Amino acid sequence: MFVPFDSTMLLAILPEILLVVLAGVVLALDAAWQPEKRRWLGWLTVVGLAVAFILTATVSQPESEPRLLFGGMLRDDWLSFAFRLVFLFGAAITTLFAMDHEALGRKGEFYVLLLVSTLGMNLMASAGDLIMLYLAIETTSIPLYILAGFITTDDKSTEAGFKYLLFGAMTSAVMLYGFSLLYGFSGETNLYLLAGKLGELPMPALLGSLLLVLVGFSFKVSAVPFHFWAPDVYEGAPTPVAGFLSTASKAAGFAVLMRVLLAAFPAALPSWQGLIALLAVVTMTVGNLLALAQTNVKRLLAFSSIAHAGYILIGVVAVNAAGMNLGMASVVFYLIAYLLTNLAAFGAVATFGRVSGSDEMDAYKGLSRRSPALALVMLVAFLSLSGMPPFGGFIAKVFVFAAAVEANWIWLAVIGVLNSIIGLYYYLTLLKYVYLYRQDNLEEEQKPLPISRPYALALVLLVIGIILLGTAFNPWFEWSRTAAASLF
Amino acid sequence: MDFGALLLTLVTFAPLLGAAALLLVKPEQKNALRWVALITALVTFGISLGLLAIFNPADAIRIDLPWLSVAGWNVHYHLALDGLSILLVLLTTLLTPLAILSTWTSVEDRVRQFMAFFLMLETGMLGVFLAQDLFLFYIFWEFTLVPMYFLIGIWGGERRIYAAVKFFLYTMAGSVLMLVALLWLGTQYNTFSLPELIAQRANIPPQAQTWLFLAFALAFAIKVPMWPLHTWLPDAHVEAPTAGSVILAGVLLKMGTYGFLRFNLTLFPQASWEFSPWMALLAIIGILYGALVSYAQTDAKKLVAYSSVSHLGFVMLGLFALNQQGIQGALLQMINHGLSTGALFLMVGMLYERRHTRALDAFGGLWKVIPVFGTLLLIVSLSSVGLPGLNGFIGEFTILLGAAGSDALGNAWNQIVTALGVSFIPMRSAGGLWFAGFAALGVIFAAAYLLQMYQKICLGALKAENQNLKDLSWREIITLLPLLVLIFWIGLYPKPFIDLIAPAINQMLGY
Predict the structure, then answer these.
(1) Chain A residues close to B165, C-beta within 8 Å
(2) Are residues A427 and A311 in the same domain?
(3) Mode of pairing for the β-strands spanning A67-69 and B75-81
(4) Interface test with B, best of A386, A388, A434 (most B CBs within 10 A)
(5) Which residues of chain A neighbour B183 with C-beta distances below 8 Å?
(6) Judgement on whether residues A233 and A287 belong to the same structural domain of the protein
(7) Helix (H, G, I), strand (E, B) or coil at B64
(8) How many helices (H) and strands (E) does chain A have?
(9) Which of B224, B306, B395, B476 sits 20 to 30 Å CA-CA off B327?
(10) Is the pLDDT of residue B424 over 60?
């Protein structure tokens, strides 16, 4: 399983190398360029990420058998490959959204932090060792803390950054404690060697350390009861950053969760299934119920993203040891669909907020008359979030529920579908403002909503993606299955 | 791909193409938009007539292509036109252009979006009637919700937003459990194809059948709507714009009854047998309740809306008689209700356009000023009442015959009588007569509320503000004409229609 060093290993970490190079270039040009030229930094980052995406997709595909590289620090398999592409895509879209943002667009450090965080996520998805895992999580989180509090002149943003930092540091400490217990019990740090040793442990010790580790992961995916940071941080953070947090960062959390649960804790499978099932039920129910009461769109999206973490956890529960069923594949598919959809939702909110200066639902009245195109994007994004066909979100939900039904967790699927009705209600509430309500003076046509070019490009890409995932889903699902199969 | 298969795909997606074509027209060119939509709907109708021409009642026109197949999942793009669906497809393609025609002067705001949603809705409805793959069916089923939500929510009456949200949530809440049920079927038997699942239906354990039946039934019962799940209907029907009400009553409700026919009865025959007296009971309550509530209405549109609850009760009773006559009558009555109630909504809409009120008190004596309207309204009302010689009679009479002779219902009746141990209630082989008897009361009630409506609108003293009403324009007459022709045709000579549907029903019942 372990491979001695050779040059092909560098190929396997090509995306990470490219990210570091890109970050370096951006940093250097930021210093070298005059302020008026710095608006090109955004486009440079996008092009760089696109190149990295294409090179990764074509050149650094994993070999058919999973390999452990660099002394077991990284695992080169289809799962990490799939997730790394997802992160690169998410970062590119986020850059497009940030480019015309007043406070972010011309700051080189913004792009650098974003790239470093993406680098961390890439490493999270491929980490094969506890130490690497911890380092990767911190590499992801620390730039994100700064990004959340990036607008130092805005109290809400600084509050968001600080809150995120405190929560993150706390949960990460608990998780680290769990890691140390695992090491103490087994004498191993490699995830794939841990499993053999942990199998001999008494169940309480095993579950105890698992619980501690889960705290950290639950924070990353914003599962209840470690979700308290999400609404405040999403509301305060710059909207593009909130979008990135709720999608790529969450996906990275799930990548790690899946890998650790399956690689290190196969012995405790039935126990953690029950635990995750409980987590799923609580997460989606709390997320959905609290979302009902929101009047701020970003807070609404925060609670909705908590609820979605719950749906995804259903897929994690529905795994079986043989790995031949839908469970993990549905998780990967869901994450892809969710990434596209939620980025579109946050993108639309960012586009709207940039012009109108408000994220309150009231401000969305009559949007469909002010900008039919933006309203259409919101329609697609929110219907996809609520799980309506023919959008990606529908197929994703169906796969997750089907996985649960197939693995005989029918009650869990029933709770899931009931929850999706609550979800539908609040997504419809927002669409009501966009399409059905009108502004008091009925003069929406006189207040057009310009959409700048990077926003338009990103939104069009995302909408096409959402519809593709919802109609031509075969190749994507096949891809998700390949990725998930490499977990076992 | 053979010709029929091609036509099936075309008829389903032609409206969607038309909706896309609308984007090429400027929003200000309202008449151009209307023409594009109307022509699309007419072309779709033409294609469905082409399908009728090559249709053979003994055999289905089918297209079946793999769509997704991984991990034991087999989702197919599988459409079929058979005796159970052909009349409903024709009804859909007929009512859509008529409904579009009715909006010519009544929809002025955001015409492009209105027409686009309307055509999208048509694709969804056709897909529901044609899909033979459970997964595909569910997609189309849900797909109809969004356009209707907007049709009600943007172009509806005063309480449109409340009605739209209620409609959406109510229907969605019903259908999610169906999703779980069909996922269970799909993962358990590795196929979503309806014919394949029917072939395997004997393998479904009895207890699972019960649960699956209930999960599907909940979705369909809300759509029908069966008492006591009908409360979304009056709101949605009353608040929807006229064209929306026509489609809602004419086609969308049939998705529910069609669902029972297509899925519950064929996939879970045992459970259907067991539940049939309960379903029949709810149907009869619906018939009587709907009729009584209709009688009490002062708003013409509300009256017609509640009459749907009553009429759809007949359809449900026919379906759960579980015999040839009952189901034939039910299928025919679905069409009849679409024609009659569609026409009633259209005419109420025409009245509303003239007077901007639908209160029955505001009218009276209209026959004197607008005789053409009066005549047509009389015909349509009588057709809805079920006057012999018009379409409603054929459907309701067949249903009552079916219920009276039903083994399933008779059997249940005898069991109840035995259980009660009362000797003075006659126990007959045809216990279904009791069900039919109560339902027949509904026909009498229908005469009462519809004729009362007619009387209040067209007879009596003419009010001063109604003296200058304009009679129907040519466009309006053309809108109603096809419906009137069919009302007489089915009423006088129903054989061609029965011939289209009978073989499929016999095959379904296993004759």
Answers:
(1) 425, 428, 432
(2) yes
(3) unpaired
(4) A388
(5) 398, 401-402, 405-406, 413
(6) no
(7) strand
(8) 21, 2
(9) B306
(10) no
Nearest CA in chain B to A402: B183
Tens of pLDDT, residue by residue over A374-408, are 988 999 999 999 988 889 899 899 889 988 888 88
Q: Is B184 on the interface with A (CB under 8 A)?
A: yes
What residue numbers bound the domain in which A303 lies?
Answer: 270-488
Query: Are B99 and B151 within 8 A, CB to CB?
Result: no
A343: tokens are 């980025």
Same-domain status, A109 and A66: yes
Residues of chain B neighbouring A474 (CB-CB closer than 8 A): 67-70
Chain A residues within 8 A of B143 when measuring between CB atoms: 388-390
* Of the partner residues B70, B135, B145, the one whose CB lies closest to the CB of residue A477: B70
CB contact under 8 A, A401 and B138: no
Distance, in angstroms, between A326 CA and closest chain B CA? 7
The answer to whether B187 contacts A383, with C-beta atoms less than 8 Å apart, is: no
For chain B, percent of residues with pLDDT exceeding 90? 18
Residue appearing with tokens 């970490």: A13
Task: Say yes or no for a CB contact (<8 Å) between B145 and A414.
Answer: no
Alpha carbon distance B301, A259 (integer Å): 60
The whole-number pLDDT of residue B69 equals 73
Q: Is residue B474 part of a domain?
A: yes
Residue of B nearest to A435 (CA): B154
Number of folded domains that form chain A: 2
What radius of gyration do chain B's Cα atoms show?
22
Torsion angles phi and psi, residue B133, rounded to 5: -115, 130
Distance CA A402, CA A60 (A): 33
Same domain, A348 and A473: yes
Question: For chain A, how long is the longest CA-to-CA vector?
Answer: 72
Question: Residues A346, A222: one domain?
Answer: no
pLDDT tens sequence across A213-249: 999 899 989 888 888 888 999 988 899 999 999 999 9
User: What residues contact residue B152 under an 8 Å CB cut-off, 6+ apart?
Assistant: B160, B163, B164, B167, B236, B239, B240, B241, B244
Q: Which two tokens stand for residue A218?
A: 């639950």
3 state SS for B179-243: HHHHHHHHHHHCCCEHHHHHHCHHHCCHHHHHHHHHHHHHHHHHHCCCCCCCCHHHHHHHHCCHH
pTM over 0.90: no
In this complex, the residue of A390, A405, A435 whose CB is nearest that of residue B180 is A405
Give the ipTM of the model, two decimals please.
0.83
Contacts of A473 in chain B (CB under 8 A): 68
Could you list the beta-strand ranges (E) of B206-326: none
Structural domain of residue B349, as residue ranges?
275-511
B172 touches chain A (CB under 8 A): yes
- What is the chain A residue with the closest CA to B162? A432
> What pLDDT does A465 receive?
92
Query: Do A279 and A229 share a domain, yes or no?
Result: no
**Which of A264, A296, A313 is the C-terminal boundary of a domain?**
A264
Instruction: Give chain B's domain count.
Output: 1
H or E element that contains B121: helix B111-130
By residue count, chain A amounts to 488
Could A388 and B142 be called an inter-chain contact, meaning their C-beta atoms sit closer than 8 Å? yes
Q: Are residues A305 and A400 in the same domain?
A: yes
Give the count of beta carbons closer than 10 Å to the beta carbon of residue A453.
10
Q: Report the gap between the CA of B187 and the closest CA in chain A (Å).
A: 6
Which DSSP string do the residues of A395-437 spell out, in sequence order?
HHHHHHHHHHHHTT-HHHHHHHHHHHHHHHHHHHHHHIIIII-
In chain A, the residue whose alpha carbon lies closest to the alpha carbon of B147 is A379
CA-nearest residue to B77 within chain A is A471
Q: What is the pLDDT of residue B128?
A: 94
Provide the CA A212 distance to its chain's centre, in angstroms.
22
Give the Cα separation of B90 and B496 in Å (integer): 14
Across the interface, whether the CB atoms of A424 and B180 are under 8 A apart is answered: no
| Same domain, residue pair A311 and A392 | yes
Boundary residue ending a domain (A236, A264, A292): A264
Q: Is residue B250 part of a domain?
A: no
